[in-house]
Amino acid sequence: MSQSPELAGGEGFTFEGDAAAYYLTALLFGARSREIQNLLLGRTYRFQGLKPAATVQSCYGHGMINGGHYVREAILHFTNAMFLSAGTGVETRSVQQVNLMRDFGANVLVGFADYIKRLAEVARDQGMVPGEDIRIDMISGHLGMESRESLAELWGHPELFDWYGVGDTGTISAEGPDHDGLYIWEDAQFVELLDPESGAPVADGQLGDQVITCLFKDDVYPIIRFNTFDVTEIMPHSSSLDLPFRRTRGFMGRSDNMVKLRGINIYPQGIGPILEENSAFAGDYLCEVERDDKGRDEMTVRLEVRAGVDREQVAAELRTLLKQRLGLEFQVALEDQGALAPETGIEHRQKPIRLKDRRFS
Fold first, then answer.
1. CA 107 to CA 51: how far, in whole Å?
2. Which runs of E-coded beta strand occur in the chain?
3. Helix %, strand %, coil % for the chain, to 5?
4. d(CA 240, CA 323)
5. What are the tens digits of pLDDT across the range 331-353?
6. What angle do CA 211, 34, 191 make, to 5 degrees?
7. Which fold has domain 6-164?
8. φ, ψ dihedrals at 297, nearest 5°
9. C-alpha angle 212/214/216, rounded to 5°?
10. Alpha-carbon dihedral of residues 239, 241, 246, 248, nearest 10 degrees?
11. What is the DSSP string of 46-73?
């Protein structure tokens, strides 16, 4: 019996002046490797406690991007849960998404943390109370460095689970019921952590790029030592589950999206959790880097804030907070809610843009 390959895409962008140019990278899947990829994600959801009777709403894109499709296939092929393929805010408007959750009784959300947070705000704008009108028991997605406390509070304190993977490889690691790091599926993925600058292996507990070899992709599209440029570290201590897999701390930023200011490495994805410590922060933000006439690099953090706050006071508080956490002074620019969405793409991108580097434009 012949096997038909599948063509999907990986999402990306590149900067051309002020514009973000969108592109797709082609990904190919043979029938066997594709179904193993689905199986690994199905295993992840079951490992995290997804129940057969659950109603899962997916906020992953379902266009040419691979992610939403293999999430759908994993749930339909390897769990007995009901699946609602809502997609991003472009495919199904955010207002419609929260109505779907309420009307179909969705109790599990899967997707990226940024947009799931946004949906909680939309629900409130529509007069719904997450946790009462929409009862979410479980959120499984890409949490990375985002604040778990704020996400849980927005949705009425469901159980949160992180997992990590990329379109090329499928699921690489997943948080378990012990909530103690992400277990690498080492029966399917060989993971190396390499120093972003030298390419040398790093010791456990040190940051490095995740370099992946898929042990099951031996058909149309082998993946051998694929550098994701996603930074993490191996957790050195043993886990309570006593599984024979190493664990990582999950996504901790991208080495190719890192900005070095005064000798300090700044990961834009790490700014969000710091901003969330201030209750005025409304969820969306963008870091901009410029170089002045003297050759000094400066970063401005633009962020949306809630209506009615004392902006001068909030800006001062955030400048102090960022300096305390990161050891540098940042410029802070406050924006109205919704103002940054056209630039970050939070309504339609699975991964919102968090950095604009204007130093070389």
1. 10
2. 6-16, 19-29, 55-58, 82-84, 108-112, 138-142, 159-166, 170-175, 182-184, 189-194, 208-214, 226-232, 247-248, 259-261, 264-266, 281-291, 297-305, 331-335, 355-357
3. 25, 35, 40
4. 36
5. 999 999 999 989 888 877 767 88
6. 15
7. Rossmann fold (3.40.50)
8. -90, 135
9. 170
10. -70
11. HHTT--TT-EEEE-S--SSBHHHHHHHH
The single-letter code of the amino acid at 17 is: G
Instruction: Return the SS3 of 342.
Output: helix
pTM score of the predicted model: 0.76
Q: How far apart are CA 271 and CA 276, in angstroms?
A: 9
Alpha-carbon torsion, ordered 203, 205, 209, 210, to 10 deg: 90
Task: Report the distance separating Cα 260 and Cα 240, nearest Å.
Answer: 37
Q: Tell me: the pLDDT tens digits for 130-154?
A: 999 999 999 999 887 666 888 999 9
Homologous superfamily of domain range 258-357: ANL, C-terminal domain (3.30.300.30)
> What are the Cα distances from residue 33, in Å, to 39, 78, 110, 251?
10, 15, 23, 24
Give 195-253 as a DSSP string. Answer: -TTT--B--TTS-EEEEEEESS--SSS---SEEEEEEE-B--S--TT--SS-EE-----
pLDDT for position 260: 74
For 281-329, the pLDDT digits (tens) are 998 999 998 887 767 788 999 999 999 999 999 999 999 999 998 888 8
Q: What is the pLDDT of residue 55?
A: 96
Structure tokens at 141: 């997605």
The tokens describing 258, both together, are 């890192």
Which numeric CATH code is attached to 183-254? 2.30.38
Of 237, 141, 117, 111, which is closest to residue 181 (Cα–Cα)? 237
* Residues present in the chain in total: 361
Residue 306 burial (C-beta neighbours within 10 Å; 0-12, 13-18, 19+): middle
Q: Each residue of 210-239: pLDDT tens digit? A: 999 999 998 888 899 999 988 899 998 889
Check: CB of residue 130 under 8 Å from CB of residue 161. no
21 - beta bridge partners?
Answer: 14
CA distance 178 to 9: 33
Q: What is the structure's pLDDT at 7?
A: 45
* Domain residue ranges in the chain: 6-164, 183-254, 258-357
Cβ(266)–Cβ(328) under 8 Å? Answer: yes
